Amino acid sequence: MSSQQEQLPKDAAAAEGKVNVQINGKWYRFPKGTRIADACNSVGIHVPCFCYHPKLSVAGSCRMCLVEQGMPPRLAPGATPTYNDDGYQTIQWMPRAVVACANTVAENMGIRTDGTVCREARRAVLEFLLTNHPLDCPICDQAGECKLQEYTADYGQPSHRFTEAKIKKGKNISIGPRVNLDQERCVLCRRCVRFMKEIVGEEILGVVGRGGHNAIACFPGKTLDSNYSMNVVDICPVGAMTSKDFRFKMRVWFLKSTPTIDTNCGTGTNIFIWSREQQIYRITPRQNDAVNSCWMPDNHRLNYKYINSEKRILTPLVKTDVGAPQRPGAWEPTLRAVSEQLRRCNPKQTAIIVSARLTNEELYLAGNLAQLLGISQLDIVPRSGEPDGMLICADRNPNTTGAKLILDKDGRTLDDIRLGIKNGKIRHLIVIGEDVTAEAAIPESHLSKLDYLLVIDHSETATTRAADVVLPGVTFAEKYGTMVNITGRLQRLNKAIEPLGASRADWDILRSLLQGSGGDMSLLTARAQSPMEILDEIAAQFPAFKGVSWAAVGNSGIPITETGETIPLIEREQTKQ
Amino acid sequence: MTESTDAISALTVEHPSPGKKYYPPFQPTADLEKEAKEYVSMYPEGKELSAVLPIIHMIQGKFGYICPESMSWIAQQCKCTEIHVAGIVSFYPGIRTRCPGKWHIRVCHTIACALSGGEELIGYICEKLGIDPKELSGDEPMGISPDGLWSIEPVECLANCGFGPNLMVNDTLYSQMDKEKVDKLLAEYAEKA
Ligand code: SF4
Ligand code: FES
Ligand code: FES
Fold it and tell me: Rounded to the nearest whole angstrom, what is the distance from the C-alpha of residue B141 to the centroid of ligand 3?
């Protein structure tokens, strides 16, 4: 046997700081200290877990993750280990199962997740969990994404042996302004308790009672009102914590989930948008350890109602005469008229206000349009608020960094534009994605003095009402694009629903305007048929974006620049590790 | 039993009890605070939480039971949340949220005592004191006599199994009880009242 001369697998693994583990008969290598559950899941072998959550402390209480484990036999004094042909020691299996969440891998360890020991352990755990469970899946919001339901289908038994009366507990308890609790559906994993204590730092939830009467509760008079409360709905493996907003609205299996990002602040929390037939039903956080871990703030999560609101502008609106009301128009003639009008405007008397809520691609096209028309007065509208020390940052624009990189604008010349409008030096104004009467503080009376006001926006605002022409753009849920968050991470927006009505993606509108305005540069941009191709152009022109492509950004983003900014919650998570 | 919609507010319901006249009402005085501080100081800093249980015993000893206000007070003393205290109070059957009578009788009904007659004694005592035995089921099994002088609670093993049936009146253990001895015992305590 040549293996004696060759390095043994254990030494080879140790050299990389890893250990060899056999899972269901196959050998794998994992870094030392990996939890058995994580190890199995990382190679596609699913270990069912209720209480284990990688971002919370380990409770090891639900026992759902029981696996069969073995180690090489303990050696008699003086004996030396023997290795088989493959260089491993034989594994001696333990008669009882161990929890995969609270134990870590070790050299030459064996794990079995498919044997009788495991199957029987899981079956028994589920049987116990279901003794007092109300079995109300037909009216439960979690149905379809419930771990108890899934595991019962996979590992449970079809019949019930429990004939005693079930213990009754509280149902439909309003435990906070946004969350309802059903104590009977709870599997007492304590994820919600640990989340509130460890991540939010407010010990609002606790377990009361004993044995079969155990229940989650908050102290009377206290409520689960943290701005992060809805995360407990996400991490609750069953339907015990439900979102008041989403309750009874839609069966989850009808929903399509689109991975994208939150645009409520500069953090750019990674999210899923859940939609069906052009309607958005909910938003949930999507794990990204460099941005938001597994969490998101409630107010950002619930800020989606404007997407399907009555206020949306669904066709171009045109004022045919001074003082005339806006009337719906068709796209092509409107675009032609706008392009013509723009060419007639004196660039010295024209300004563009763009939103830092636009994507990089849109900002780039807006910059091109300005250049093409010779307009030098262009800026974004800064928007700030109190940071919350968790995920919400002071910058309430999602793409300030992108605007800085692409347009070299940060809102500092907005005052000049405002003044120009006030004293009549600016006669023509193009507004893209902003209500300038709000944060930009340009009063309506000043807007009405303008000769020409072109607005691209998705919803009716004081600014759109004052406009000569409104071109209906879309919300972040209806378009593709990229943004750069406060830490300098380039992230992707994905389209969850098609543009509502006759509205068009902002990049599409800007591209049409560029094409309609003639000139050489329009040829270049006219070639780009999609935000992906526009991104390629950006990558070719801006050093920070060098080498970047739609595919390379992926759904988790890539850092492209250093800003010195950090996200407090992520900082804390990293120091904890 | 409490209604399900009220499963949470049930945690701080103040239960009526005729026994209250024999105990002082809970008052968070400076002296009480001093006493609590002593318990807290027995544990290392940051581990104030550990003092919850001894302080609960101290409060129950003085005031007969743990009232809702005392839960909040204990949480303050131990720098923890009220829900944590409520969790402990609701976990242990020995921690009461209802005021007992002046003489609290704990009758062992674990196997050895139950077999030697303890189980019957419970019914017998209830009858003698005018307590409804139905009160002895549920989360906190305890019956209180209408005059508030007596209360009875079936408990698990009192660690004196060889000499059953065992019972305790407040903190004194009585062994090898039978109906006659119970009669005598109750009469004795009634005298003391
Ligand atoms: S409510 Fe949900 S998260 Fe909380 S302990 Fe129960 S099952 Fe776990
Ligand atoms: S997931 Fe391991 S014990 Fe709950
Ligand atoms: S069984 Fe009654 S004292 Fe042990």
Answer: 18
